[in-house]
Amino acid sequence: MFVIATISDTIRVPPPLLSQPTLTSVQTEIEKRYPNKIIVDVGLVIAPFGPPLQIGDGMFVPGDGGAHHQVVFKAIVFRPFVEEVLVGTVIDSSDDGVTVSIGGFFDHVFIPAYWMLNPSTFDENTGLWVWSPTYDDDDDDDAAVEESEKEGKGQNGNAMADAANARKTVGMETEEGDDSEEEGRFEIEIGSEIRFKVKSVNFTRITTTMKGVQATTTTTAHASNRVFGLDGGSSKNGAKTPSNTDGNSDGEERHSSTQTAVRRRSSSADLSDSDIRPAPMQIVGSICEDGLGLTSWWKAAAEEEEEMEEN
């Protein structure tokens, strides 16, 4: 979730700080400029990490009394990796999905409708998403099929038909039970703690051109061993995986068939006639797996299992 990033930038030291040591004045300006700032393709800067690594000579520009230094430094950056499991708080809900806040410092996490637990529906009356699990329908269906086969009903396809009928009967009974029981409804309430998995990280750069306001989005998706640092940048056959070595963080990453982490740059969108500006950084999450969703759902299940084991 948090990484150490190396950043290179030109830092301006204002005239009042020129009397101080260069290291002190430069570090002071870095601490003013970078915390809580999103850098495209890097992440959300939390704080500088240690003193600057390199400080170039100060340059003066005509009409400006400040000194400009080329500085290289490290910073703590918030940038979750794909497939990482995080915990946040639900802050908004709509028919498009759920918006989540992480730690109170990052509110641009979105869980779309197609990444909800199945089956989930949006309740227009309450304005909340509702998960209605079917529990052990599959196990019941398999048991019904096996029982029909053991009884030997119909040697030439009758067993299959009876099994299908039993499957339909079990499904109908389960649906009726779910409708009559409120226990089968799990609402994703505002303010609840939710556990989700990161599916993609989107960075949007907004620029003003002759054509108007343009937005270009970079999406990082698909996890691989190389992203997690497990294979040292090597492919399965021992060959080194090609990577971007020109030092440009905005360049497209080259990848082999074994490196599934890709960076796709979408076409620019015109925002000249739109008052809504996309967030510079957005995380797309998913709760479409067991153990994901509201933490209270799974805590209750774990407590019930512990009670059953004790009894």
Q: Topology, please?
A:
Elements: E1 2-13, H1 22-33, E2 37-39, E3 43-48, E4 54-55, E5 59-60, E6 67-78, E7 85-94, E8 97-102, E9 106-112, E10 120-123, E11 128-131, H2 137-151, H3 158-180, E12 186-188, E13 193-209, E14 212-221, H4 225-228, E15 262-265, E16 269-270, E17 281-286, E18 293-294, H5 295-310
Parallel strand pairs: 9-17
Antiparallel strand pairs: 1-6, 2-3, 3-6, 4-6, 5-6, 7-8, 7-13, 8-9, 10-11, 11-12, 13-14, 13-17, 13-18, 14-15, 14-16
Instruction: Tell me which oligomeric state these chains represent.
Output: single chain
Unreliable parts: 151-157, 159-164, 166-181, 223-262
In DSSP terms (H or I, runs of 4 or more residues), the helix count works out at 5
Strand content: 35-45%
H/E series: EHEEEEEEEEEEHHEEEHEEEEH
- The total strand number stands at 18
Average pLDDT confidence is: 75
Q: Structural class, please?
A: alpha+beta
Report how far apart the termini are.
40 Å
Radius of gyration: 27 Å
Task: Write structural notes for this entry.
The chain is α+β, with helices and mostly antiparallel strands and 311 residues long. The protein has 5 helices and 18 strands. Strands 1, 2, 3, 4, 5 and 6 form a 6-stranded antiparallel sheet that branches. A 5-stranded mixed barrel has the order 7-8-9-17-13. A hairpin with a 2-residue loop joins strand 7 and strand 8. Helix 2 packs antiparallel against helix 3. The longest helix is centred in the middle third of the chain and has 23 residues. The chain is elongated, with a radius of gyration of 27 Å.
